[in-house]
Design brief:
Blueprint: E1 3-5, H1 7-13, H2 18-25, H3 29-36, H4 45-55, H5 59-62, E2 63-65
Antiparallel strand pairs: 1-2
InterPro entries: Cro/C1-type_HTH, Lambda_DNA-bd_dom_sf
Protein name: Helix-turn-helix transcriptional regulator
Organism: Flavobacterium azooxidireducens
Amino acid sequence: MPIIVNVDVMMAKRKMSLNELSEKVDLTLSNLSILKTGKAKAIRFSTLEAICNALDCQPGDILEYKEEKRS
């Protein structure tokens, strides 16, 4: 999928654990882990807002688009 999720990068920059972020955004560890590993199919704007608020970042810091190469 051409959408890359960089939650782990922002967490590392902010020195924040998955448990701490989970508590701050009120998401289960399993749901946050699915998002972090790029296995999520969608994200609610309210969840994205909470993550951006907790990590003090912009949505573009978390989500990245990379065009897939066509053969």
